[in-house]
Amino acid sequence: MKKYIIKIVALFTVTVTAVSCTDDLTVLPNDRLVIDTYYTTENDFRKGVDYAYDAFKIAGYYSGDNSQAIIPDILSDNLIQNPQGRRSNNSAYIFDIAANVGDVTSAYGGGYAVAARANAVLDKINNLSPGAFRNNIEAEAKAIRAIAHFDIVRRYCKIPTQSADAAGSIGIAYVEIYDPYLVTTRNLNVSQVYDKILNDLLFAEQNISQTASVGKLTKAAIQGMLSRVYLYKGDYDNVILWGQKALAISPSVGTNANFKNIWADSSNDGVLFKILNSSIENIKTGSAYNQTVGGQIKSEYVVDYDLYTKFAANDIRKSSYILTSVFNGKTYNNVIKYKQATGKPIEAVDIKYLRTAEVVLNVSEAMFKKGNESGALALLNTLRAQRYTGYVPGIETGQNLWNAIMLERRLELAFETDRFFTLKRLALPVQRSNFGPEADGAGNPASILSLPVASHKWQLPIPQGAIDNNTQIQQNPGY
């Protein structure tokens, strides 16, 4: 008798391996899980969903040099390459984007690996008796699947608000079954992919029951995720609806007093969902930004000086996100969001995937779009009151209010994967500064300063390995 293991491979393929039934095969290291005789008890399903959460930490998602904690900021105007670094992710930085470049293609396989683990749970869901436990497990698995597909589609396809033709343009495969031999095609347009993401999230919002852990999805986290997806879709009424529901459950944006502790993993104030990283796992989520060498921070990428100057002296985010220090005789503004968590090895920090502050910004932006400037301003002031010492409420209106919302979004979500996608969904170019990498802006600027709105490179290429494995998958235009 044989048992079968799923093994996720990073090019959107899944292999099946037969092993002896005498082995202890409950959960195998890192990338394998028995499915043929496993999902029979509630404990099995709990472990299976936890295994799907764990997939967010695989290489190409939130670990390794190609970590998605850094790639979207490298592609934007938030970071500049440190010439004393290893030149990691250089192809992404200079927009030398191609189907065989791991910098920009690794999230594709990583996302489908997460979805496959969620689908393995859903494939066996009928083994559970109807009731609250089953509903919650199904809700978590579908929400995980939705998040994985959302992270794929926003990278490799147009965003609905990006252009007039975006909604009808080529989407991705939305994989809803577990089948190791499944041959997929990009048979959906972008709008249809978003509809499937939303269907999964809406099911999850109605059926999820857990409330305790920021390391697992909760009702507030799913409502916050709905506000994000609807913002990308341009459905501002639903951004407001679901964002306000999330804020009703979890209103704190992270107080000024607690804010630094969020990044030390000693506080969850204002965190809706994060990817847990234990001392035992010791996944170096921060090493893509920098390492510690001889007691000094050696950064791969540092904060662009133009962005650095936008952080006011009385802004708690400045000292929470950035540390100015010397490496090998040069002074740099280093990103420290992923540097050191309390009681954990250096650079082994939890990934804050979704925070209440983003939901506030989503709703504020949507209210502005709908003409409710007073509501937009009130929410923006709620956030700013917890970021600036001695803050006096703002009174902006019109274009000045819009500019303030966009500034706070950039500052609040800097180095949290948002900037590239904000520019993309608003159809704005990447326009980097003429400053160099040193702490005062000295040194040589980036060799490539802009990415125009019309460039095909906003849609990253499908990895060539995925196409080689499945010739039914169509490459994006321009590659």
TrEMBL record:
Transmembrane segments: none annotated. One of its GO terms (cellular component) is cell outer membrane. It comes from the Bacteria. Residues 101-231 form the SusD-like N-terminal domain. Its main location: membrane. Belongs to the SusD family. It is found in: Cell outer membrane. This is Starch-binding associating with outer membrane. Residues 325-479 form the RagB/SusD domain. Residues 1-18 form the signal peptide. Keywords: Cell outer membrane, Membrane, Signal.
